[in-house]
Amino acid sequence: MQPPSSPAHQWRVPPALPVVKLVGAVLLVALGLLLSDDRVQLALTVAAAAGLLGWALRDLLAPVRLAADPAGVTVIRGYAGRRHLPWPAVEAITVDRRARLGLSTETLEIDAGDSLHLFGRYDLGAPPDEVARTLRAVRAAH
Question: Rounded CA gap, 87 and 139, in Å?
Answer without folding.
Answer: 7
